[in-house]
Amino acid sequence: MNMITPQHQNAGRVRVFDTTLRDGEQAPGYSMSRSQKRRIAHALAELGVDVIEAGFAQASDQDFDSIQAIAREVRGPAICSLARCQQGDIETAARALDDAEHRRIHVFIATSPLHREFKLAMSRQQVIDNAVAGVQLARRYADDVEFSAEDALRTEPEYLAEVLAAVIEAGASTVNIPDTVGYTTPAEMFERIAYIKRHVRNIDRAVISVHCHDDLGMAVANSLAAVSAGARQVECTLTGIGERAGNAALEEIVMALKTRSELYGVDTGIHTQRLYPTARLFNTLMGIAMPRNKAVVGENAFAHEAGIHQHGMLKHRGTYEIMRPEDVGFERSQLVLGKHSGRHALRERLDSLGHHPDEAGFETIFTGFKTLADKKREVYDGDLEALANGIDPEATGPWAIEQWHASSHNGGTASASVRLRHEQGFEASEASIGDGPVHALLSAFERATGHALTIRDFQIHSLSNGGDAQGQASLIIDCQGREVRGNGVSTDIVEAAALAALEAVNRIERLQASEPKTKPAGVSAGAGS
Fold first, then answer.
1. Cα gap 240→249, rounded to integer Å
2. Residue 5 above 80 pLDDT?
3. Three-class SS state of 196
């Protein structure tokens, strides 16, 4: 059995221990199915994490089955199961990990006075005895054993050092120092890790790890402080999910170590170009929207709207970007056009769209752009195309919805029908089937209008809470090399999708207004066709 041991640990290398599937799943609303866990585990392996904590085998049969499936399928990282320092937990974890290429058993017990008195009802010595027994039992099943002192940062330093020395002597090759409740500060974390290095007599036989929670918003900062003090494993999750306010965010730690390599002098084995795709996959599987301002992987992480910033970016990207978007998996930086944008960014975007107006024409477009930007949060390429072609971006029509219907049932396809009225007086009625009601409805729109709706992205977001919450459907369509967007809002998400499709096809028709027009396929001059 292969194992990462302290003597083989590169002093300039920090292990990434991902606990998305264990601690991350403990966040309310983040429960994962077995198939979801398997997909995420494979993605984490491709990302290059060193350890995947696949779950808590004793917690449930589903957790056991998920860990077992991941242990059988995923190669590369060590596969880990959490276990209390109890015989049943440890033996169950060992069975779940039996087929792993590299296995790790992660045992823990609380060490702080608060936990010893009120949760465990144990003395100092009883905690040490249980910790040692747990590590020794785990070593019967795995050469790679990690020990965690739960609530370590609220534990007496001298007692914590005593516990760590005992578990290392018993066979733990990694000792984890969790800030279980997110209580500590970076200065305190640095001093605690330095204290452990000075006072644990056999610390050279183990790797020091940290597991930080974000209750005070310092999980990443505390993790980095620990690395500065000599920790060589960080425990983290994708996008920082986890109990309460969450854990340290994997992508933030990794990119901080890479971006400030001159400060930390260490690296990781993470393929950083996969950070954004992996985070996006995770959010898609969980059915949650990532905050646009999320560090490193949020949609705004490499987006610039302010005119001064955009001007600087056009001169040299280093003026306002400390990381390259390509290094985390984004295609490129975005100069977002909004009310704070200036002439330089608008001119650059028009040039990229193939429009090269003279000065007078540009000033007309710029005036229209500023008027539109005051009304909208963001001005899209389709809006600029319309302005450049002399079309009002806020115009409605030519199509309007007269009627729509969609239905679906368990185990079968969905169907939808739509009747549209054109401003020239004719109607179009079509029906279609699809994988779901939204898919069927969009197919019906395609047939009714004659426009191919090649969908690049489709998202539904809740705009409010409760049973009568409004949903916003956002649709991005590729149309002959153009990006066309549509948005719709309704308490019925299928109707919101219909309104988004309507806005998109109307934008397409207005953009094609200068081209010779023929009636779309399926359109009849009479009503009720």
1. 4
2. no
3. helix
- Residue recorded with tokens 């779950």: 55
The CA angle 400-406-409, to the nearest 5 degrees, is 170
| Cα→Cα distances 385→243, 488, 520, Å | 46, 21, 22
263/270 Cα distance (integer angstroms)? 19
CA distance 434 to 440: 4
Rounded-to-integer distance, Cα 529 and Cα 507, Å: 24
Give the predicted TM-score (pTM) of the model. 0.72
Distance CA 190, CA 230 (A): 9
Helix (H) / strand (E) element for 513: namely none
pLDDT of residue 11: 74
The predicted-structure confidence for 32-66, as pLDDT tens digits, reads as follows 999 999 999 999 999 999 999 999 999 999 999 99
Q: In whole angstroms, what is the distance from residue 328 CA to residue 326 CA?
A: 5
Q: How is 133-185 classified by DSSP, letter by letter?
A: HHHHHHHHH-S-EEEEEETGGGS-HHHHHHHHHHHHHHT-SEEEEEETTS---
Phi-psi region of 522 (alpha: psi -120 to 50; beta: other; left: phi over 0): left
Rounded CA-CA distance 138/172 in Å is: 9
Q: Which residues contact 399 (CB under 8 A, 6 or more apart)?
A: 420, 421, 422, 423, 449, 502, 505, 506, 509
Closest of 486, 498, 493 to residue 463, by C-alpha: 493
Cα separation values, 436 from 133, 407, 441, 446, 487, Å: 55, 8, 9, 16, 19
More confident position, 345 or 16: 16
| Tokens (6 digits) for 376 | 């909208």
Who has greater pLDDT, 288 or 438?
438
Number of neighbouring beta carbons within 10 Å of residue 525: 10
The residue type at 459: Q
Rounded Cα distance, 461 and 472, in Å = 5
Per-residue tokens: 249: 């965010």
**Residue where the block lists tokens 């090399």:** 481
CA distance 427 to 226: 67
Mean pLDDT rounded to a whole number for the chain: 86
Which DSSP category does 337 fall into? B
Please state the length of the chain: 529
Dump strand ranges (E) for 224-340. 233-236, 303-304, 334-335
DSSP secondary structure code for residue 267 in this structure: B
- With beta carbons less than 8 A apart as the criterion, state whether 122 and 131 touch: no
